[in-house]
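Human: I would love a firmer grasp of how sequence relates to backbone shape in proteins. Take your time, and here it is.
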Amino acid sequence: MTDYKNLIDGEMVDNGEWLDVLNPANEQVVGRVPACGKNELDRAVAAARRAFKDWKKTSSEERQQVVQGIAAAIKDNADELYRLLTTEQGKPLSESDADVGMCCDLIRFAAENTRRLEGDIIPADDPDEQIWIQKVPHGVVVGITAWNFPVAVPTWKMFPAILSGNTVVFKPSEDAPHSGALLVQVLEDA
């Protein structure tokens, strides 16, 4: 049985209240995760806002390098991720492996497209004017994900946002939280 805490502001935390994570094949408890509420959410968003001040200033090349390293770390931990996913969600190993594979593919795709985050210059109604559109980071993105693809779906939300210079607060489904927690642990280690 494994307990995972939440990563908030670089610190592993819990509030003393726990949710059991069950293996759907046999209803056995395979671990626990913190049952967090508004206080933890507020702390996570505040930390993401603070991190945003510096992260938005990083170049797209730096962000791309960070995310490429994360993709490599996920690939290095793929076996553990897909086995955990199968245990807590009940997918066959082949489908769990595909879930993790989709995650790595999307991260690479998003990282490759980072250099294409360009602005646009378009004509205005007045022939002496042009409209310049500049793409800039907006702030904190909150990704709340479902249980069905607990590794791939978070990457669909997180990495385009991160690569665009935003920061992310990620809340996995309580029906498949361990794979999300392990994904965050891999990100932190990378």
